[in-house]
């Protein structure tokens, strides 16, 4: 059905009145080929059997424009893929010259881009039996080019690269200025660093540089509907602090906190204080090693592209969302996560029988096993956050860093208290405060689960966890947390347990939870929630048919229905040519459309349509619709049509609320003027 609708849209354009817009807002963009030029190596790339080499592509960008880098967290990240390679040659990595670290002028978020000459390298590995001689490879690049006003739809270009495979096994790197080796000698070339490359080593590459995994070079097209997020949330520093906080919070849970004085007391039994401190230090190092090994395993499984895969894969988001729900229920005392008791007994017995380093390591493993029911939600949640919130070349290291920081914070008190046993008397006594902390963190993880579940819903286009629904559920979680802290909601407590006393800490927590309810309230009507927008579905989710965006009904990806309604009611048709990856489009929709000068005009007697021109499979068709209607494929572009289908106004690029309101008034008057005459 959808292909028929698309074909009918183009057919309708072919029979629509042929007229130029009465006026044009914004300047028409130049030809994309005039903005970005890609060239391959000027000399053949010399490859040695059993070795590696780098084929370097050069791009030049017109002044005032920029191309997003391979690892840009926002925008339209560059994608590079070797689509045709000779037998025995494979692409094993990507490099790029240092991009510009900038702030997107539309959204105020950090991005990485090239705004002048730059180089991108494709690392090639050659097998020992690769056929000798000259070959031709094809490298496909897909990129987005923008200025401070508009973005053109993603462009795809193919660059041909000449290769020469010779005998020998020495690693080489070839770029635009790579000299040909003397006949009969092993192939050689310039150091990749000479071309200004910042990323890299592959197998025997001569210089140690930071790699960019090919899978992180842009978000797959199927995930275009995923909400744009900043790379890594708070960045590595913020993630490190989150991991440290998780380690300290896990330490304060009922499964762990009572073990602190017992464990420190066991170290203090030694007559020598130095030996006791040494055992405690060894125990702390062993705890760090146990948890960090778990992080290393996660890093190995995820690889450098883990963050991008998680952010793009709805199945993984669904699994993580369900996992967070289970962890939350565990912290709330409704579900118990516990390893078999025999495991703890065996490990603890082995640690007592064996001394030295092995005994200390086994004691750390015993602590991890015994405390599993309380630490599992923190460890699992942290690893999920590391996988889903990473970005850039360091994404693969986040699980490793997270577990190292978590375990260091978790183990530090054992070492400190062993060094100063007198501090044990100052520790707070175990009590209901631990259950309060544990339950509060359970509500936090329950709210976090909604983020992953809504991501899966958004990519699949199910439309169940819409922005208002997620806001309502988050408000409900916050309200339940407030009731829990006020002692009105009892969870995971034995029957007949007396009601907890509501002290200052509980009261402050309840006030904060109720404050979160008030902060989220505007989101129920589709409004912006600045303090929580990063955790909520986007304000303008992709959808099909006539969908509500705030209080306005939009025909999304259905121009036929919009034209039919406009003709039936005799109203102007406002068409928003937008894109999933267009940050300028998001800025217009979030800042200009709701402005007091603009909102009454868009909310009046107007039919509204929204076409996404950068998605698949329908994006190319909508892009052609845009080109025929407006004469440009830039994003954002807005067109106003009369009820008879005549284009009476076009605006391309960003605009202030006053400018856009003036455009709309003039265009709407032009659209309905003939009908009033």
TrEMBL record:
GO biological process: cell redox homeostasis; cytochrome complex assembly
Spans traversing the lipid bilayer: 236-260, 281-303, 315-335, 356-380, 400-423, 435-453, 465-486, 507-532
Low complexity bias locations: 186-196
Mode of membrane association: Multi-pass membrane protein
A single GO cellular-component term on record: membrane
Pfam families (UniProt xref): DsbD_N, DsbD_TM, Thioredoxin_7
InterPro entries the UniProt entry points to: Cyt_c_assmbl_TM_dom (IPR003834), DsbDN (IPR028250), DsbDN_sf (IPR036929), Thioredoxin-like_sf (IPR036249)
Compartments reported by the entry: Membrane
All residue ranges annotated as the Cytochrome C biogenesis protein transmembrane domain in the record: 241-454
Region span, Disordered: 172-198
Domain Thiol:disulfide interchange protein DsbD N-terminal: 49-161
One MF term in the entry's GO annotations: protein-disulfide reductase activity
Top-level taxonomic group: Bacteria
Extent of the signal sequence: 1-21
Keyword annotations from UniProtKB, A to Z: Cytochrome c-type biogenesis, Membrane, Signal, Transmembrane, Transmembrane helix
Alphabetized PANTHER family for the sequence: THIOL:DISULFIDE INTERCHANGE PROTEIN DSBD
Designated name of the protein: Thioredoxin domain-containing protein
């Amino acid at each position: 059905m959808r292909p028929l609708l698309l074909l009918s849209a183009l057919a309708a354009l072919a029979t629509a009145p042929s007229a130029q817009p009465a006026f044009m807002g914004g300047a028409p963009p130049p030809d994309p080929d005039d903005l970005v030029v890609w060239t391959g190596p000027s000399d053949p790339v010399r490859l040695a059997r059993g070795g590696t080499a780098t084929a370097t592509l050069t791009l030049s960008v017109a002044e005032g424009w920029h191309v997003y880098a391979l690892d840009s967290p926002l925008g339209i990240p560059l994608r590079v893929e070797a689509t045709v390679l000779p037998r025995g040659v494979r692409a094993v990595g990507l490099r790029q010259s240092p991009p510009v670290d900038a702030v997107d002028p539309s959204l105020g978020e950090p991005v990485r881009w090239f705004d002048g000459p730059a180089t991108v390298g494709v690392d090639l590995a050659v097998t020992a039996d690769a056929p000798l001689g000259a070959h031709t490879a094809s490298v496909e690049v897909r990129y987005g080019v923008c200025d401070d006003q508009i973005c053109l739809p993603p462009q795809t270009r193919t660059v041909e690269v000449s290769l020469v495979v010779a005998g020998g096994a020495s690693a080489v790197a070839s770029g635009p200025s790579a000299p040909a080796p003397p006949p009969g000698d092993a192939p050689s070339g310039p150091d990749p660093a000479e071309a200004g490359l910042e990323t890299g080593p592959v197998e025997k590459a001569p210089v140690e540089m930071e790699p960019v995994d090919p899978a992180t070079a842009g978000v797959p097209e199927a995930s275009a509907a995923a909400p744009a997020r900043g790379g890594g949330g708070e960045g590595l520093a913020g993630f490190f602090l989150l991991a440290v906080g998780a380690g300290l919070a896990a330490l304060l849970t009922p499964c762990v906190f009572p073990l602190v004085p017992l464990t420190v007391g066991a170290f203090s039994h030694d007559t020598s204080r130095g030996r006791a401190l040494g055992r405690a230090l060894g125990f702390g190092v062993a705890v760090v090693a146990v948890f960090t090994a778990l992080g290393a395993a996660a890093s190995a499984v995820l690889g450098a592209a883990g963050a991008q895969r998680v952010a793009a894969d709805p199945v993984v988001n669904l699994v993580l969302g369900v996992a967070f729900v289970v962890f939350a229920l565990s912290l709330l005392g409704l579900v118990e996560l516990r390893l078999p008791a025999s495991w703890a007994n065996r490990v603890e017995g082995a640690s007592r029988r064996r001394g030295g380093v092995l005994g200390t390591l086994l004691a750390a493993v015993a602590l991890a096993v015994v405390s599993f029911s309380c630490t599992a939600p923190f460890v699992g949640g942290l690893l999920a956050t590391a996988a889903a919130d990473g970005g850039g070349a360091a994404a693969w290291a986040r699980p490793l860093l997270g577990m190292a920081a978590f375990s260091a914070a978790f183990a530090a008190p054992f070492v400190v208290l062993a060094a100063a046993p007198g501090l044990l008397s100052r520790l707070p006594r175990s009590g209901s405060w631990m259950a309060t902390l544990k339950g509060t963190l359970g509500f936090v993880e329950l709210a976090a689960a909604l983020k992953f579940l809504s991501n899966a819903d958004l990519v699949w286009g199910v439309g169940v966890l819409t922005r208002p629904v997620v806001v309502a559920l988050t408000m409900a979680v916050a309200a339940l947390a407030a009731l829990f802290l006020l002692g009105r909601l009892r969870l995971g407590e034995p029957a007949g347990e007396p009601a907890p006393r509501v002290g200052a800490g509980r009261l402050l927590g309840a006030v904060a939870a109720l404050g979160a309810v008030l902060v989220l309230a505007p989101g129920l009507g589709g409004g912006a929630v600045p303090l929580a927008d990063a955790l909520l579905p986007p304000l303008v989710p992709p959808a099909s048919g006539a969908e509500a965006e705030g209080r306005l009904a939009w025909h999304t990806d259905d121009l036929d229905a919009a034209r039919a309604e406009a003709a039936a009611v005799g109203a102007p048709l406002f068409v928003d040519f937008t894109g999933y990856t267009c940050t300028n489009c998001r800025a217009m929709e979030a800042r200009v459309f709701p402005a007091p000068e603009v909102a009454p005009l868009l909310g009046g007697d107007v039919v509204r349509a929204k076409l996404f021109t950068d998605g698949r499979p329908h994006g190319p068709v909508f892009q052609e619709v845009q080109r025929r209607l407006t004469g440009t494929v830039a994003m954002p572009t807005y067109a106003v049509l009369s009820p008879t289908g005549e284009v009476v106004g076009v605006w391309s690029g960003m605009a202030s609320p006053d400018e856009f309101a003036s455009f709309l008034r003039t265009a709407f008057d032009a659209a309905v003027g003939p009908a009033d005459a």
